[in-house]
Every structure is written in C-alpha cells, then in structure tokens.
Amino acid sequence: MSQYTNYIGKPTNRVDGPAKVTGAAKYAAEFNVPNLAYGVVVSSPIAKGKIIKVYSKPVLKIPGVLAVFSHENVPNLAWFDRNYKDDVAPGGSPFRPLHDNEVKFSQQPIALVVADTFEVARYAASILEIEYEEEDHETDIELKRTEGFMPGRGKSGWMPPPPPRGKPDKEWKKAAHRIEHEYIHGAQHHNPMEMFATTTEYHPDGSITAYDKTQGVYNAQQYISKIFGLSKKQARVVTEYMGGGFGSGLRPQYQLFMSVMAALELKRSVRVTLTRQQMFSFGHRPYTLQYVKLGTNPDGTLAALQHHALHETSRFEEYTENVVNWSGMLYQCDNVKLGYQLAELDVYTPLDMRAPGAATGSIALEIAMDEMAFEAGLDPVDFRIRNYAETDQNMKKPFSSKRLRDCYHQGAAKFGWEKRNPRPRSMRDGNMLVGWGMAGGVWDATQKKSAAKATLTADGRLEVSSATSDIGTGTYTIMTQIAAQYLGLPIEAVTFKLGDTDLPEAPLEGGSWTAASVGTAVKNVCEEMGKKLLKQAQKMKGSPLKKAKFDDVEFVNGQIRLRLDPDQAVVIRDVLQASGKEKLEAETSATPNMLKQMQHSMHSHNAVFAEVKVDEDLGTVHVTRVVNAVAAGRILNLKTARSQVLGSIVWGISMALMEETIMDHKFGRYMNHNYAEYHIPVNADVRDLQVLFVEEEDEVVNPLGVKGIGEIGLLGVAAAIANAVFHATGKRVRTLPVMIDKLL
Amino acid sequence: MNPFTYSHATAVDDAVRDKASHHDAAYIGGGTNLLDLMKENVERPTHLIGLNRLPLTKIQNDPEGGLRLGALATNADTAWHPEVEKRYPLLSQAILAGASPQLRNMATNGGNLMQRTRCYYFYDTATPCNKREPGSGCSAIGGYNRIHAILGTSQSCIATHPSDMCIALAALEAVVRVSGPNGERTIEFADFHRLPGNAPHIDNTLRPGELITGLDLPAKGFEKNYSYLKLRDRTSYAFALVSVAAALELEGNTIKDARIALGGVAHKPWRDTDVEDALKGQPATADTFRKAATQLLQGARGFGSNDFKVELAKRAIVRALKQATEMKQGPTEAFLNSNP
Ligand SMILES: Cc1cc2nc3c(=O)[nH]c(=O)nc-3n(C[C@H](O)[C@H](O)[C@H](O)COP(=O)(O)OP(=O)(O)OC[C@H]3O[C@@H](n4cnc5c(N)ncnc54)[C@H](O)[C@@H]3O)c2cc1C
Ligand code: SF4
C-alpha cells in the first residue's frame, strides 16, 4: 500500500487557499471589533526641519473627531532608546513616532487624527494645519561619495566584509585581462499589496490585542510592551494572514505604535491604516553605488577581485546589509578586496528587502563577471565553472553542500545555451535583436531557535502551532505537510496555527530560515507526540507494539506500525480512544546543531538564464524566457517552492527593467509614490518562466535538509537580463533599471 | 476626503442646471480619475453630479456618414463596438492601449477627454504646482520630468495630457459636442485641449458648466492604413512616454492623405497640419517618414529627465507610419500592442 501520508516534497495545494479566495482570511485592517475608532496619519511635506505648531483646535471641533495626537500631546512613554529597539533594529537610535518637533525625513508621520469614522478622520487629517520651519536637507548620495564611512554597529545578521586576502591591487594590475566599472541601482520600496494596518482592540481590563501586519508577532509584542509598559499578557499581537511582506514587516511600523498609543489613551479600540502613498514613507532597499574590479590570468581563472559598495542610511540608524561579502565566496580567487560603506542622508532608515544586500551585490558582481568573460573571450558559463569555489574562502570552511555546478549545467541544458552565438548583436528574431545572458547567486541557509506545540484530540485531529508568519510564502502549507507526515495523519486532519503571541515563540519570518527553523520544531514536536502516542498504544490490550522502541515504529497512513513488520500496526485514532484521554499535548523547541554548523559554510545557490528581445529603434526590451536553476537543499513542496521562485523571477525582471523609487532632491521626497508610477511587471511583461530544482542533500543545515527558497530565486535574475541586453545590443547598461532612454 | 453631496442626473438639462446651481460642483462619469484626485486632495468638489443615468451611452451612425459616440459610453464599449472596430480601428487600438480592462470598463468617453495630467507634482499637495495652485510654481521644471512635455510647453507648466484615446480622436478630427447654460455647441477636437501658456490650471476650452454629450467621428476612418504605437515603461498599464496615432490614405505607394497625432509630448494631442499636408503626394518610404518626423519635432526641447523623448518621438513616428503603410503584424507589434 502506498504511503499516502508522505507529504514532504509533494506539490501540495495551499491549505489556506480556500480561506483566501473566499474572503474568510482576515487581514489586519479587517478585524471589525466593536466600538472601533479610526486613526489617519498626517505625513510631513518637508524632508528636514522643525514642527513649529500643530493647529489641532479647528479640527477637534469637527463632529466625530476624538483626538489629534502629535509630539505636543503624546503621552509620556519609555525614555531610553533600547525600549524602541526591535529584533532587527540597526545600530543607532530608532525613529520614535511623534516624539519631538524634529522632522527627519519627508513623509515622516507628524500627527494622528482619530475619529468615530474613517471618513471623518481622513477629512480632518486633510485639513489639519501644521506649521514647519524648513532646514536644508541632503538626500542625494551622489553628493556624498567621499563621505562614506564603515558602519561601527551594524545589525543582527550583518557581517563586516572579510579582510583583504592576497595582493588584490598588485595582481589586478598584472592581470592578462582587466575590467573596472561602476554599477548603480536606485531605491526600491517593498510595496506589498496589503497596506500596513493595525487594529488594536482595547479590553476592559486595560489589556490589548493588536491585529497587526508584521512578519514577527513576538518582535511587535516586545516593541509595544517596552514602549507602553505593558506586560506580555497585556499585549497580544496577532497576524493570521499577510498580503505580502518582502521584509517590510520585519520591523514594527509606525501604524502599530499609533494604533496602540491611541487605543490606550482613548481606552477604545482604534484602527490605523496607511495609504499607498504612505507605504513609501518607511524602509526601502537602499540606493547603492558599487565598484567592481576584476582581472583574469591567461587560463581564465580570476587573478583579482575587488568589490566596493556605498549605500544610503538615515541620520539616526546605521542600516547595514551584506552587499559585497558574497563576492569573496561565490568564486575561487586568492586576491580579494571587499569594501563597504554607508552615507548618511535625510531619509528614513532603509530596510531589508527580499535577499537584502545579495540582490544588490549580485547585480554588480554578475554583470562584472559577464564583462570579464567577454573581455577574456570566454563563455560566461565556462568562465564561472573555471572559477568554481570548492570551499568558502571567506570563512575558510567547506560547504555543507553545494550543487551550483549542476545548476549551471542543468540550467544551460534546459535553456539551450549551447546554441548561443557569443558575438553581441548576432542573434535576431525579425527586426528584433535577441540576447541571451546568464548570472547566478548565493544566499545563506540559516536555522534559528523555534518552538512548537501539538495537540491531538480524540477525533484524530492534530493541531500544531508556532508563532511564525505566512507572508504568502506557503508556511501554513509546508508546516501542515511536515506535521501530517511525521505523525502519519491525512493532511485534512491537520491544522497549523501561526501569527499569535499566545502560541510558542518563533523567530521573525525572514532570511529564508522559516522552513528550516519552524519546520524542525514542528518535526520535533510531532516526534514528541509520537512518543506519547506509542506509550498509549503500548497500554492497549494485545498491542502488537508492546515491546517496540520509538525508533522501531513508523507513523504512516493513520497508523503506528513496526518498521520491519508493517502488518503489526494500530490505528492512531483507536489509540486515542483506548487511552480514554480527550487529548494529548506536546510542546518543544528546536535549536540548530551548532557543533556541526560551525564547521561548515551553509548556502543555497542558483543559476539564471534569460532571453531578451530588443527593439533597437525604440529601445524596448522584453524578457521572453527565463530558466532559474536552484539548489536549495530539500524542497518541501514543489508547488509553493516553484511559486516562490516564479515570484522572484518576476521581481528580477522588475529590478532589471522598471522598478525604482525616484526622489526629487529639491524636496527630498520620493515622487512616484503610487502604483501607477512605481512600475512593477504586469502580466504582459511576464512570459515563459521555468523553474528547476537541482536535487541537493544536506545533513548539516538541519534535520529536514532544507535551505529555504524565499530569497535565492531573486539572485542573478536582474544581472542575467542586463547581460542578455548587452548580448542583444552590444550596449552595456550599468545603471539599472534598463529603461527605454538608456538604449536609444 | 471633503464632505460632499451627490445627485444623479437623468437629463442633460438637469445636469447642467444642477452644476450651475452649485458653487464647487463636478460632473462624475466613471470616477476613475476624479475619485483619485479627491482622495489626494487635489480636487475638492462639494457636490457631485452623477452622469451615468444620462441617455448618452449610445454609439450610432450619424446622417453625414460618420459615427456618434455618446459621452457616457464606456471606453471598453467604444473600443469593442463593431462599427468602431470596422470603421475606426485606430480609435479601438488607441483606447485598448490605455489603462487596464477594469479601468476601461468604468471610464467614460467624456471623462477620458477631461482626465487630468499625471504629473507627479500635480498629485502631491506637498509640492508647488501651477496647475493645482495657480502661481505656486512648477516643480517639474528642474525636477523629475521623465513623463513631461517637449512641445508647446511654457514657463508655467510642462505637463502632458495623458490620454491615448484623445490622440486617435485628434488624428481622426473628431468633433466634441457640448451642452451648457447657454445651449449646445460643437468644438473641433484640435481646439478642445489647450496649451498651458500662463494659465496651466485650464486644461481645455470647455466653458464653465458645460457638459460633454458626445463625440462625432467624421466619415473618413482611415481603416485601411493606420497604427497606434505606444511606448511606455512596461508592456501594459502605464501611460505613454510617447505615442503616435498614424493614419494614411494610400494610392499604390503614394500618400494621398496623412494624419499624425502625438501623445505624451504636449499639454494636448500634438498635430502639425503643415507636416501632414507636405506628405501628400510623397512616396510612403522611410525617407519621407523621417523627414516628417524631423519637421514635427522642430522646436521640441527636453527638460532633463525627458530629453530622450525628442529622439524617441521621431523614431516612433517613423515606425508608426511604416506600420500603417505595411499593415502587418510582426513580433515587435505583437509586443507593443499586447494590451487587450
Ligand atoms: C492607474 C491608471 C492608469 C491609467 N492609464 C491610462 C492610460 O494608459 N491611457 C489613458 O488614456 N488613460 C489612462 N487612465 C485614465 C483613464 O482613461 C481615465 O481616468 C478615464 O478615461 C476617465 O474617465 P471617467 O469617466 O472615469 O472620468 P471621471 O473620473 O468620472 O472624470 C474625470 C473628469 O472629467 C469630468 N467629466 C466626466 N465626464 C464628463 C462629461 N461628460 N462632461 C464634462 N466633464 C466630464 C469630471 O468632472 C472629472 O473632472 C488611467 C487611469 C488610472 C487610474
Ligand atoms: S508641469 Fe504643470 S502640472 Fe506639473 S508641476 Fe509643473 S505646473 Fe504642475
């Protein structure tokens, strides 16, 4: 009999799909608690200066307006910076909403108008007069090129670039072929479909439940409890569903502060929802300038590699991401120098956005690699394979597993790369130039401590829970699959709960570590439960499992049975009934095996192949085909994993061809702050996309062998497209996105 | 949003009267532009007059052999109307190159003519803008002006009219029918929209209180040789950086009549009848088209981020005329016109 409860790896439909398409799934702004008041945020029109006065009086006279909060009347709150620091706050002094009269960035939240209805609040907010004294601002990183500094404090997950190795300057000068170029990419905003919102339900005992949009309910909880002096019991945070995050929900956003503050002050439930325009008022992928120097030996191996990056941060925090470090490990090179600097501007602190740092760094490195291959007269795939890194030279450690070579080979085969004429401008389709380009990338495989709980009830239903998030990635589904498989139950009998501080603690949903971290906790808790079940099964009259040890049995098809003699089995539901218990419970956590992990470099890899068609007269580029070959350990669900990579490719097309938040430095303000002018691909821009998972076994990363696929798919896509544009046209565009004007 | 009152008009006269009796009233068609403007506090009407119950949704033949488009017919119904598709395919193509299916299902023909510029600064009340607040200054000059005009600009404003439909209507020489407090009148399409001059807050020549009731298309539809070419930052659902409505009447390879209207380059659909006249009698060759393009763009100037539009417009004109001449779909056309 087939083992129908073996769900891991199978392309499984989203378990939360029906709730989402029927509207049963509720998002932060959809919890209609009784007696709800509505808050609307007023944003600063200036980038820097002082608030002279907030003229609240006329607004307070409007029937229905309950309060106007600003620095002038904000209640006394926690004083020290540390109370405002969340789990991923960079070094520095976090922005405190409504704290004082300083304006530090354009669109800074200046006031919150609360009213009985949303319409009144919005109207009142629109006529609230605020007097400012403007000061000179600096928002243009181009003018700060010489003022970069090495961050002193960083943030969790950030690693300063490794020290130089070998003789990068000398060897570069001696190299047979050399290139050096600057690469630029502008700012980008996450722009998930769902706007940030918090509905804070005020309970009669003074406690609150915040229905928030966050990628980490525990992070949000500790933030508000420290600021408002609430105990954890008094501050529950819930995020059952999220309409996309991409990193924007890693840090608590200011609507959470606003909504909780107003609810506590007014002793009434309050909802605050940001507008699409306000979605451009907080973190973003930083505007980054990069400089890459590469040199090769006559045999096509890399003689020297240098990669420097300078990106923006705010005046108050040192936002850091790993931009250049990857360049020291993706290819074998003994002469390497990596540099990383920040420049302070009058903007909000940048914020991790899908594959932070790597997405940026890989654009520069992988376009440069293409330039280098061309200069040295080598095929770009061949060039990369010649410089294949067998060990991680940054860490001086072996890889826990690495099948990037197979990504190159399998991706190239699927794409038909061998038919490529290496000469630029040599391939055509009618009057269009055709270009084929490739690139690749690397991302961390991380596991974090996580906890999970399981409850098995007499009716044979299993509920497993952990306070992680599903930002649309498929967490609900893969956790359900893991639990169903480890306890051998039909997937329909298993429910997974997440996004609630009443559940066992899980890390922020980010860094592609959720599958590894929470997945392992779910596996562990199911094994705990399995042990309890076995004990009960052994108490049954005539139990065939009487003498079995836990390792002797398996949980399959709703049964516990002997591995070596599967006919010796008991039905799990019967065990529960015989036990006379209403339910069995287990709770446990999973921590990484540091001993093993410390000895290895753990990473996922990919190789991307792209075809573009360029109408040279008109400067239009269309990406007609992409193959993305990913090696990311074990794939838990082929369907949701493929969706993750498809989404990544679309985003890569976006980064390559259209996406950019444009600032007018006169005002220090982003000007295309809406969906009509902030361009991301539409269906017509997305054509033939193919995803290929290279099988990869890894016993080091975690017991499940998964590396996570939330981010790796994005790497290399933009560079592959830019490289394809060069192959098509002979024009090298080093400032992305490649828009019409750059090809005319 | 400002508090406002709302009424439905069921007859044109009532709508006009209702408008005249309110100080800050606005007509509302599909609302796809007006609602955004109200949400952004760019426009704050205190009274809205809903037009969708007016008997102006029909598309029918007129006695002179042309076609009359009701002002309240939706963009979608117009584009897909069999008579429009058959006799004025240029118009169909232009409409379908605009916005998205959802928007076109809501948007009305009258509203399309009246839609306002997409200038970033116009929509952001934190920045000065002469069109929104006369006398406050133009932020786009010296600012980020990728989508702005290169022809017919003034020191007060360099905004463009963003419509696709209107570019085809200009090429086809439609006539706008309006009804106002002083009765009915018609306006030649070329005279409907205006250049900014020193009054950029005025988009067109409609008089206060006037309502658009319909559009008359002349009999001549250029259904044999036409092309609407739209260049934009993504393949669909983006406003034109440059668009060209090209219509030709050919005898063999000789041009008998030509119309070229440009979008995305000026405060109104841009035409130059001298250039069109000069094309008459010329062979339909790349050379002829290039000359026309150069002439059409004479006097064009960029403002920084939109400098590229001058060259792009020239190339687009040449391509559109070529497509209109050849009337065959190659792979490029399939990409550029992939919208519907
Ligand atoms: C995201 C987005 C993308 C878009 N992309 C494109 C594009 O690519 N190309 C394109 O051409 N358009 C595009 N549009 C614009 C769209 O075509 C217009 O919004 C639409 O045509 C307006 O019609 P409406 O009936 O909705 O007008 P409304 O919003 O109802 O009204 C607009 C204005 O016209 C006035 N008005 C309406 N009807 C009449 C009348 N009969 N007489 C007098 N005044 C009247 C109103 O008072 C108001 O001032 C886009 C719009 C959006 C929101
Ligand atoms: S171009 Fe016109 S609409 Fe834009 S800011 Fe200047 S005046 Fe305003």
How would you describe this structure to a colleague?
- The complex is a heterodimer of chains A (744) and B (340).
- The mean pLDDT of chain A is 97.
- In chain A, α7 (358-376) runs parallel beside α15.
- Chain A has 16 helices and 33 strands.
- Chain A is α+β, with helices and mostly antiparallel strands.
- Among the domains of chain A are: 17-22 and 448-591, 2-Layer Sandwich (Aldehyde Oxidoreductase, domain 4), CATH 3.30.365.10; 31-136 and 190-280, Aldehyde oxidase/xanthine dehydrogenase, a/b hammerhead (Aldehyde Oxidoreductase, domain 3, Alpha-Beta Complex), CATH 3.90.1170.
- Chain A has a 7-stranded mixed β-sheet, with helices on both faces. In chain A, strands 16-14-13-8-33 form a 5-stranded mixed β-sheet, with helices on both faces.
- By secondary structure, chain B is an alpha+beta fold.
- Among the domains of chain B are: 5-50, Uridine Diphospho-n-acetylenolpyruvylglucosamine Reductase, domain 2, CATH 3.30.43; 226-327, Enolase-like, domain 1.
- Helix content of chain B is 30%, strand content 19%.
- Chain B has 13 helices and 11 strands.
- Chain B has a 5-stranded antiparallel β-sheet.
- Chain B is globular, with a radius of gyration of 19 Å.
- The mean pLDDT of chain B is 96.
- Classes of the chains: A alpha+beta (744), B alpha+beta (340).
- Chain A binds chain B through residues 45-46, 106, 119, 122-123, 126, 277, 429-432, 613, 615, 617-620, 622, 657-658, 662-664, 666-667, 669, 671-674, 676-677, 679-685, 739-741, 744, and chain B through 1-3, 40-41, 118, 120-121, 123-127, 139, 142-144, 146-147, 231, 233-239, 241, 307-308, 311-312, 315-316, 318-319, 330-332, 335-336, 338-339.
- Bound molecules: flavin-adenine dinucleotide and iron/sulfur cluster.
- Flavin-adenine dinucleotide (FAD) binds next to β2, α2, α6, α7 and β8 of chain B.
- Iron/sulfur cluster (SF4) binds next to loops of chain B.
Which fold name corresponds to the CATH topology of the domain at 226-327 in chain B? Enolase-like, domain 1
If strands are numbered along the chain, what order do they take across the biggest sheet of chain A? 3-6-1-12-9-10-11
**In percent, how much strand structure appears in the residues of chain A?**
25-35%
CATH superfamily of the domain at 31-136 and 190-280 in chain A: Aldehyde oxidase/xanthine dehydrogenase, a/b hammerhead
Q: From the coordinates shown, what is the CATH architecture of the domain at 226-327 in chain B?
A: 2-Layer Sandwich
Overall outline of chain A: globular
CATH 2nd-level architecture of the domain at 31-136 and 190-280 in chain A: Alpha-Beta Complex
First-residue to last-residue Cα separation of chain A: 64 Å
Count of individual beta strands of chain B: 11
What does the largest sheet of chain A look like? Answer: 7 strands, mixed
Question: Sheet bearing the most strands of chain B, described?
Answer: 5 strands, antiparallel
Strand content of chain B: 15-25%
> What's the CATH C level of the domain at 31-136 and 190-280 in chain A?
Alpha Beta
